[in-house]
Amino acid sequence: MELSHLALPVTRVLPNGVCVHQLQGEDKGVVRLDILFKGGYSVQHKPLQALFTNRMLREGSKAFSGAEISSKLDYYGAWVDIYSSQECNHIILYVLAKHFSPLLPVVEDFVKHPLFPQENLEVVRRNNKSHFLINSRKVEVVAQRCFERALWGESHSLGRPVEAEDYDAITREDLLQYFNEVYSHRNCTLFLTGTNDAAVIEAITNSFGKEEWGAAADVAIDVPPPMSQPGLCRVKMENTLQSAIKVGAFTLPSSHSDFFNLRFLNVLLGGYFGSRLMSNIREENGYTYDIISEIDAYGKKNAFVVSSQAANEYVEPLLAELYKEIERLRTEEIPAEEVKLVQNYIMGELCREFEGVIAKTEVFVNAWLSGDSFESINHYIDTIKKVTPLKLQSVAQKYLLRENMSEIIVGA
Q1: Burial of 220 by CB count in 10 Å (0-12 exposed, 13-18 middle, 19+ buried)?
Q2: What string of H, E and C letters represents the secondary structure of 169-217?
Q3: Contacting residues for 316 by C-beta, under 8 A, at least 6 apart
Q4: What is the DSSP string of 111-150?
Q5: Residue 26 near residue 357 (C-beta atoms within 8 A)
Q6: Residues facing 23 on adjacent strands
Q7: Which residues contact 271 (CB under 8 A, 6 or more apart)?
Q8: Closest-CA residue to 392 (of 253, 260, 249, 255)
Q9: Alpha-carbon span 266 to 262, nearest angstrom
Q10: pLDDT tens for residues 145-155?
Q11: If you ran DSSP here, which 8-state letter would residue 252 be given?
Q12: Spatial contact of 212 and 287, defined as CB atoms under 8 Å apart
């Protein structure tokens, strides 16, 4: 299947200034509405403030109790996904188009008028703390926390990992403060996907687009530069049969002219089952069951990271082979047939990701979160088609530098 350029979202501005990005496509009778609030972890005053504020929205509002909100969602067969990221708070509604208009006032009420009931907060706090403590015994979770601390630096506001006592310290007043500083029409952006007939547009306009709402001023996100700590960090955990390994560093912003070539190089190195890292470290040497390299987004910044787990005695050989493969990318021209293989793999994956208009939403939302234009997605497609071995080698020489890497090993 030949992958052509994607049709870009159509943007409209509602009377109160809220932007709605509509994705055009086949009508399957389903609506996905993304309600995004600029802010996230970057503007919170204490750990967990953004996460708990967003999570508690549906626990009770001015017109509905938490039980009534859940009952309404169940009655209409709807699903709401709520999560927070570094620079944004997300509420995503999935519902049949025929139920969208009667259900939206419920969503509107818990988005605009949450009560953050103390009793519900205690339950959510207890459950989240229990989950945190269980995860804190997993080497891969601890490694991720240590990696993020190394990326940002220990003295950076985003480098401090969440601690168990942070769950005890969060209060209802903290949630009210954060809500009043972030949630308003001034910081709200909508993505509408699926059926978007006149009734759907009218419902959205009536709920979120007519009047000004919310006390929050326009949020200004000003993240200080990272103070990365390259080099090795070992964390001992008793009674572990395997160690978790993270190696990586902040890398190019997605607006950089080399970024899409770096994404391609990342896939070739460790981004699919037939990658060089999988072929060497899993298939040939048997050091691990799985190893992967990724480009992860941290707000507007991107990090290159290799992740794996291995028996404790295989950690050092695994790291040696990892750096051997990176050095090969820097010093040896990649065979044209391997480039073609990865081109075909990426194109196939993109065809799968873009299958159906609702599936495309994540792609455009992620572009918006990264501060990219929607057109950048088509630029990526063009770059994949035109990539060359020499360009990939040049990118590896510039950006895959061991001296910039943080190495995290968590285990025995």
Answers
A1: exposed
A2: HCCHHHHHHHHHHHCCHHHEEEEEEECCCHHHHHHHHHHHHCCCCCCCC
A3: none
A4: HHSB---HHHHHHHHHHHHHHHHHHTT-HHHHHHHHHHHH
A5: yes
A6: 193
A7: 292, 293, 294
A8: 260
A9: 6
A10: 999 999 999 99
A11: -
A12: no
Contacts within 8 Å (CB) and 24+ apart, 260-263: 260/379, 260/380, 260/383, 260/384, 261/383, 261/387, 261/391, 261/392, 261/395, 262/295, 262/304, 262/395, 262/399, 263/295, 263/380
> pLDDT by residue (tens digit) across 326-348?
999 999 999 999 999 999 999 99
- In order of their start, the domains of the chain are 10-209 (3.30.830.10), 231-411 (3.30.830.10)
Judged against a pLDDT cut of 60, whether residue 73 lies above it is answered with yes
CB 204 within 8 A of CB 192: yes
Within 8 A by CB and 6+ apart from 325, the residues are 269, 276, 277, 280
pLDDT grade for 325, boundaries at 50, 70 and 90:
very high
Backbone angles phi, psi at 113, to 5 degrees: -135, 50
Q: Is pLDDT larger for residue 145 or for residue 29?
A: 145
Residue 250 near residue 259, CB atoms below 8 Å = no
Contacts of 369 (CB under 8 A, 6+ apart): 85, 87, 88, 297, 299
> What are the strands of the beta sheet with 242-250, ordered from one edge?
231-236, 406-411, 242-250, 301-311, 291-298
As a whole number of angstroms, the distance between CA 114 and CA 54 comes to 10
Mean pLDDT for the stretch of residues 211-232: 94
Q: What is the pLDDT of residue 1?
A: 45
Answer whether residue 24 shows pLDDT above 80. Answer: no
Q: What percent of the chain has pLDDT over 70?
A: 98
Query: At 42, phi and psi to the nearest 5?
Result: -65, -20
Is residue 32 a contact partner of residue 94, using CB atoms and an 8 Å limit? yes
Spacing of C-alpha 356 from chain mean position: 21
Q: Residue 85's closest CA among 368, 286, 412?
A: 368
**Contact, 151 vs 228, CB < 8 A?**
yes
